[in-house]
Amino acid sequence: MANSKYEYVKREFEFQRHLPASNWIVVRIDGCHFHRFSELHAFEKPNDENALRLMNACATHMLEKFPDIVFAYGVSDEYSFVFREKTEFYKRRESKILSLCVSYFTSVYVMKWKDFFPNNDLKEPPYFDGRVVCYPNINTIRDYLAWRQVDCKLLELKSRFS
Amino acid sequence: MANSKYEYVKREFEFQRHLPASNWIVVRIDGCHFHRFSELHAFEKPNDENALRLMNACATHMLEKFPDIVFAYGVSDEYSFVFREKTEFYKRRESKILSLCVSYFTSVYVMKWKDFFPNNDLKEPPYFDGRVVCYPNINTIRDYLAWRQVDCKLLELKSRFS
Amino acid sequence: MANSKYEYVKREFEFQRHLPASNWIVVRIDGCHFHRFSELHAFEKPNDENALRLMNACATHMLEKFPDIVFAYGVSDEYSFVFREKTEFYKRRESKILSLCVSYFTSVYVMKWKDFFPNNDLKEPPYFDGRVVCYPNINTIRDYLAWRQVDCKLLELKSRFS
Amino acid sequence: MANSKYEYVKREFEFQRHLPASNWIVVRIDGCHFHRFSELHAFEKPNDENALRLMNACATHMLEKFPDIVFAYGVSDEYSFVFREKTEFYKRRESKILSLCVSYFTSVYVMKWKDFFPNNDLKEPPYFDGRVVCYPNINTIRDYLAWRQVDCKLLELKSRFS
């Protein structure tokens, strides 16, 4: 809203970062303090099936809500969402893309919780961090996904034998 | 997790931005498509008291969860959180601060919904966008808050007479 | 140099930006106030041959000095330098790349001036601005060069008929 | 220049970064490979008086050319330039400020060389790197200058006893 002498605080301090075109945008979402959260809610180890199904349900809702997401891959309490190379989602503004994705994912996680844990009330608010990364071509995006997949196996082994 | 030939995708593409020291960090959170959301849930105009009380409850939880927040100010479906000048919250990493704040706020909003709207089920997931801005001194942070307050009055007038 | 209580001014305020891998890095250099500079030194219009030859000599020195530059294209008082996709020049640090390129170009311009203008002393210091842009693939880098070439023709027409 | 189908390469890839208001902007310029350069031109150790006087002459020209610079401090082959807090020099665009300062400094260095080294021709082009840092208040800018001054003494001691 304009015409205030205070409005300079937006113009002179608040800067939009736009992500460069022709890059695949990845948003990776990661549970914050989920080790503690999973103990508090008595998740089974190494992987609680209902917790994984809830994560997958959130990802499914993301794909429906944001059709520019063309691929999603999850492991444990993290999920990566790949936007198509040419997406003009929020004009590729980084803060918008990051915050909206993390917020929507979180919102669905809490709303759908009771569908997967009908006898296990939420004891504290689950929340996630996120980051946005750009990959310039199909090779680097493929290697990104391979990296998350390798990490998945390592995490599972670590969790199984510790 | 290290030692994978794919790990370069993190090192060469994923960059941390740290916010400069001695600046007040503001995270502003804003309801996304809340005009539609408020109609869908039959919020009273211009300001639904329960909706405002829910926003305030979320802000209260934010202050308890993140003690480096020293001030919060909200209007309608937005809230600004001011971190103390010297905060080392997540080493002042921008993506961490933005995503965790927006995610936690969203999570509390959904969890507490039924406390304020016991007879009004959530029909779709509410979600918020967010941004991070740095203000270098007490004058600019005060003007930031004045700007939001002026906007609040304008929004109310607009809403009342339209 | 370490161990000073003042050193925090570097750690907490000075941030390195690294350019993302697998992108072609372009540094474009542009004469600052060269309209005035060319009048002051009585350049011929629309294109002073010696001035263009001096620009080309600078570009040649750039290519010899920085072998990671794989292509250079100039028009009037600007020159674009394209670094190879995989360059690790100064670890792809943006400020280093920008400042070193602009500084070296300027230095050669002044040193070589008398070779091209033996009877025309420098009346004031010529100087250039610069910018760094990343292009993620061969199509966008080709279109970048096409853009500069179209601009070149427009500039020449404008200069010829005005 | 507009109206070309190639112009998207600017709009979608070339982003301006503006430095936040109410911060003191520092541009620090540093000789690149000046150890080698000073040997090549037989500078006296630890400090060649003519070389220092040439650096100071460049700084003086900077202050005359860019009146928004309010303070300059140099040691050996580096110089820091502090712009006044409220400067609107090139709308606080980072690339413009960095490249123009480094280029102008370099240009004067080469032009004035023969005034300080009349019998010592330039054997290769001297060039400088640069960086831009923002300091939010008078305390941090004072500590920045103290940091450079401490470094100056350490450099001199190191150079004297090695």
Q: How would you characterize this protein structure?
A:
Chain A has 162 residues and is α+β, with helices and mostly antiparallel strands. The first copy, chain A, has a single domain (18-160), classed as tRNA(His) guanylyltransferase (Thg1) (Alpha-Beta Plaits, 2-Layer Sandwich), CATH 3.30.70.3000. Helices cover 46% and strands 18% of the residues of chain A. Chain A contains five helices and four strands, in the order H-E-H-H-E-E-H-E-H. The first copy, chain A, has a four-stranded antiparallel sheet, with helices on both faces. The N and C termini of chain A lie far apart (56 Å). Chains in contact: A-B, A-C, A-D, B-C, B-D, C-D. Chains B and C meet through loops of B and loops of C. Chains A, B, C, D: This is tRNAHis guanylyltransferase catalytic domain-containing protein. Chains A, B, C, D: Residues 6-136 form the tRNAHis guanylyltransferase catalytic domain. Chains A, B, C, D: One of its GO terms (molecular function) is magnesium ion binding.
Radius of gyration of chain A: 18 Å
Query: Can you tell me the number of structural domains of chain A?
Result: 1
Number of strands of chain A: 4
How many strands, which pairing sense, and closed or not: the largest β-sheet of chain A?
4 strands, antiparallel
By DSSP (H or I, 4+ residues per run), the number of helices of chain A equals: 5
CATH hierarchy class name of chain A: Alpha Beta
- What distance separates the N and C termini of chain A? 56 Å
> Which structural category fits the helices and strands of chain A?
alpha+beta
Tell me which protein chains meet in the greatest interface and how many residues each side has.
Answer: A-B, 48 and 48 residues
Which strand-content bin applies to the residues of chain A?
A: 15-25%
Q: Taking all residues together, what is the mean pLDDT of chain A? A: 94
Show unreliable segments of chain A: none
Global geometry of chain A: globular
Helix percentage range of chain A: 40-55%
Instruction: For the largest sheet of chain A, list the strands in their spatial order.
Output: 2-3-1-4
CATH-assigned homologous superfamily of chain A:
tRNA(His) guanylyltransferase (Thg1)
